[in-house]
Amino acid sequence: MCIVSRFKALKEQLSITNEFVFKIVKILISILIALGITFIVLALVSDHPLENFITILTAPVKKLRYFGNVIEMMIPVAFAGLSAALLFKMGVFNLFVEGLYYICGVACAAVAIQQIGGGALHPLLCILAACLLGSVLMGGTGFLKAKYNTNEVVSTLMLNSIVLGVGLFCLKRTGLQDEEFAAIASKVFQDSAKLNVIFGGTRITISFIFLILTAIFVYVLMYRTKLGYSIRITGINSKFAHYSGINVFAMYMIVHLISGCIAGLGVSTELLSLYDRFQWTNLPGLGWDGILMATLADNHPVGILIASFGIAYLKKGAEVVSLTTNVPVEIISIVQAILVLLVSSQRFLVRFREKKLLKEGMKHELG
Amino acid sequence: MSWADFVNSFFSANFLYVVIRVSVPLLLASLSAYMASLTGVGNIAVEGIMLMSCLMAVLGSYWTQSAALGLLIALATGIGMALMIYMFSMSLGAQPLLVGIALNTFASSFTVFLLYQFTNSKGSSGTLPSKVLPTVDIPLIKDIPFLGEIVSGHYLLTYVTVILLILFYIMLYKTPMGMQMKACGLNEQAARSVGINVTKMKLLSMLFSGLTAAIGGAYMTMGYASIFSKDMVAGRGWIGIAAQGIAGINYVALLVVTMIFSVFQAITNVFLLYDLPSELINTIPYVGVLLGVIFYSVAATKKHRQV
């Protein structure tokens, strides 16, 4: 009883609403269901399901290298999530981040294979190229949305396929391709372009610091500045924002430009950290993953970091299992799909919540 | 190979045969997107559903050693996935778009998971002895020169698709049910107020959407190719969504647009032979839709300003 009352006091102190508690409970239950179903699937395909399941949950913290892999996997997805979340917060269902990851990757590769000379200049130029292209393209979709209210879902879905074709064309026919390499791939990135490892024993580069800074930037921008407040108001009701004297067009443009820049940053740091050459011949899927993470986190920057860390953690665990068994790492797609479906379902568990609200209401009435 | 050969390759019975061959999955994908958007639910998981039923057709026919049962399993998979979209978006209040994205990424990975379970390969199902559906020679027509070469000798599912297209046309334009479905998409409240069972219509439209996407998927591995390979749908679902984006609720326009896209796909195949930039030809359908959407919105904005 003491613990309960203490918890309640703490809740009031931190001004945590019941809404927030409900959200957390809902996510926890969703995680339990998702892991439960994964366990069932594991039991169907594996000889030692329990053992494997425990490995999935514990392997990444057992070795520094594994934990490093988790961070590496999480970084591009979290960047994509941040990029998407800004737009979603604005009420724009823009799905271009997937396409941007491809085309900005090509731009980054085009700079990374040139001989430019040492120092921080080369990676900086690569990242700049990607960010600039990302901003320009995303800004284009933003302009269409802001000025003409173009349907962003259709236009960005089409753009994803268009930039894939254009990117492949650039890769194959503008001198980027390494003719001697067996598969379709760009020439090898110059050593001067690559980002340095900052934690010994892992492959985590400065991109991790970029990610944290970007997340802080997005958080401060959205929740601690006047600009962010205006953006959120525009997202809730753009007409209201317009009549309150907010320059809606400028808000749309700012958000799209920043979002495109974050997407460019995400893919360029990913390529310069972990790849020797650009060899995606299809959309990488990182953008879709990012969009799903943004959904899981309800578009909150901290939540996106946590969600993409969690999924990357499970992926790494499954990867460790797949080394010794016939269970492939793709089993984590089950967890991800179920989590997203349950968390984005607004009426999931709602009855339970209503009951609780009713109970509280009765109490107030009696008291 | 000279330019004359190149030009001639577009004016042959073989080219038209190829157009029909590549058009079938595109038509089915368009139908799937169309059916779902008709009642206003929307399905952007066409790609994922096709991919999943591709694999289930192979696995199903391997398990049962019967092409027909394999097809049934593929159809059940597709319909099941489409109904999942319905369940989560309509009953549980999730955004249909998000459900679609989740299913697409799920299908892309989970097919690899299943493939690896049964073939120990993450690339293709080459080692799995699966069944394919037969090709059909139409009697009489197959003996007519030129026309016979084009129309006859396709896979069974090609003719099934043609029959489906006709049946859907009749349903949409000649029966009350088709009208009621359209009414749900145009104005749900109005439809409900005149006593249309909106829930049933939406459920039906998603059922059709899953069915057509599943046939498209089964066609890919039981006719077009005989094995499953990773991500083999390769954007066909998106082309279907693009065609629906242009055509709106106009069924005939949907078929015409899809056939135009099919011609582009067939051209791509020729371009590949001559090492021409087929990547850019591939984007033409999407560029078309993008320009269409932009022009539409610009025109709408201008009209709005005049008022």
Ordered list of secondary-structure elements with their pairings:
The complex is a heterodimer of chains A (367) and B (307).
Chain A: H1 2-13, H2 18-45, H3 49-62, H4 64-89, H5 97-112, H6 121-148, H7 152-173, H8 207-224, H9 226-236, H10 238-243, H11 248-274, H12 286-296, H13 301-324, H14 332-344, H15 350-366
Chain B: H1 3-8, H2 13-38, H3 46-64, H4 67-91, H5 96-119, E1 135-136, H6 147-151, E2 154-155, H7 156-174, H8 176-186, H9 188-193, H10 198-224, H11 236-247, H12 251-273, H13 278-306
Antiparallel strand pairs in B: 1-2
Helix pairs in contact in B: 2-7, 2-10, 2-11, 2-12, 3-4, 3-5, 3-10, 3-11, 4-5, 4-10, 7-8, 8-10, 11-12, 11-13, 12-13
Global shape of chain B? globular
Structural class of chain A: mainly alpha
Point out poorly predicted stretches of chain B: none
Helical stretch tally of chain A: 15
Give the N-terminus to C-terminus distance of chain B in angstroms. 59 Å
How would you sum up the major sheet of chain A? none
Rg of chain A (C-alpha, Å): 23 Å
* Residue fraction in strands of chain B: under 5%
Tally of DSSP β-strands of chain A: 0
What's the mean pLDDT score of chain A? 90
**Greatest interface and its residue counts?**
A-B, 48 and 47 residues
The CATH C-level name of chain B is: Mainly Alpha
Number of strands of chain B: 2
* Average pLDDT for all residues of chain B: 88
Determine the number of helices of chain B (DSSP H or I, runs of at least 4 residues): 13
| Proportion of residues in β-strands of chain A | under 5%
Describe this structure in words.
- The complex is a heterodimer of chains A (367) and B (307).
- By secondary structure, chain A is mainly alpha-helical.
- Chain A has 2 domains: 62 residues, no CATH class; 260 residues, ABC transporter involved in vitamin B12 uptake, BtuC, CATH 1.10.3470.
- The relative contact order of chain A is 0.18.
- Chain B is globular and about 55 Å long.
- A two-stranded antiparallel ribbon of chain B has the order 1-2.
- Chain B has 307 residues and is mainly α.
- At the A-B interface, helix 6, helix 7, helix 12 and helix 14 of A face helix 4, helix 5, helix 11 and helix 13 of B.
